[in-house]
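Re: weekly structure request thread

Next one in the queue (421 aa):
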Amino acid sequence: MSALSTRLSAVSEGVRIAIDAIGANKVRAGLTILGIAVGVFVVVAISAAVHGINQSVAKDFASTGPTTFFVSRYPISFENCDGSENSCQWLRNPPIRSGEVEAIRRLPTVEVVGERLDWGARVSYRNTVLSNTSVEGYSAEWTLISAPEVYPGRAFTQSEARTGARVAVISTLMAERLFGESDPIGKSISMNNAPFEVIGVFKDNSSFLTGGERPKAVVPITALIRHIGAREGDVALAVKPRENLDPTLAREVAIDDVTATLRGLRGSRPAEESSFAIITQDKLLETYDKIFGMFFLVMIALSGVGLIVGGVGVVAIMMISVTERTREIGVRKALGATRATILWQFLVEAATLTGIGGAIGLFVGWVGTVIIRNVTPIDASIPPMAVVAALAASAITGILFGMLPASRAARLDPVEALRYE
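Done, posted below.
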């Protein structure tokens, strides 16, 4: 019990001395704390953002079903493309035609095929104008693949989708900006000077991948092409396999059938590459991990710079502290203090300095997380391990960089220390 109380006394004394050192050396201590705080802030803020993005991505994929895959004219590519067909061979890929879509729909391994086309339009109602608004064209299978929450009103029917009826389902944000508190159902809005009747309002589950919360309208894909001027060649497909087998096996069989069907319709030879792209959710996750993995590593490197800056400050301020307290160290050694006791006291002092910086950085990181969550589509949240890692990093920085001055203090000869002026 006495050993424990002695150790606690040494800790409290080290903390008190560290606080006194901060007051006596405000500039040096402030720079040390600032360096540690910046490093911890970066760790916490980036961890919170990545955690929120991961949850958003998982929610997006879950909304379309884990086995759903996509057929696109263009692949997900990071090649050096200057816009020419020589550097971007996939630009030669022909668009997906309606006959190919119908052939895929007839496959016994496919349950649902949804068409999608993204475009932009100038949307207006009376004197209110929304320029360059996102307008998405879907086939009637929209509700079977992404299951939007439409209220009030309804989604468009198979007949409306097939005939290209000028009907629109708008997001809640678009309804608020165009109509305010009034009921939008049945009203006519203009999209690139073409009138569309509002038949429903859907809750847009905005996320990082979908570009955040913004005014959006969904119309039949045929109407988007005929009346708003979208290019039919940019149509992409979402394919939901018939899951009468193991889900993963069902997806792979459906992918093989879709690939064979499209290659056959396009007359592709066995040695030729496919003139279309099959994109699975695994591929999307892999691409996502590549992008954000590098981003996360860069941010961690920047946080490491902040911790190193703070560590150098710890060495400087602790060396000064050792020099100023040389005679005190000699007195303590003459009274029986061991090297371990002196070493422990100075390490506690260094860890206190960095711990204060870590606590400040953690608080600022929490404030940054709240701001990110409120002003961006990222539902940022601080994972518990990020808090542990941030505080551990600040404490370890203090111990590692404080070891040199602490060792110097512990090795002082008591006789020479007592003579020091």
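The chain has a mean pLDDT of 79. Residues 281-324 form the longest helix (44 residues).
Next request, please.
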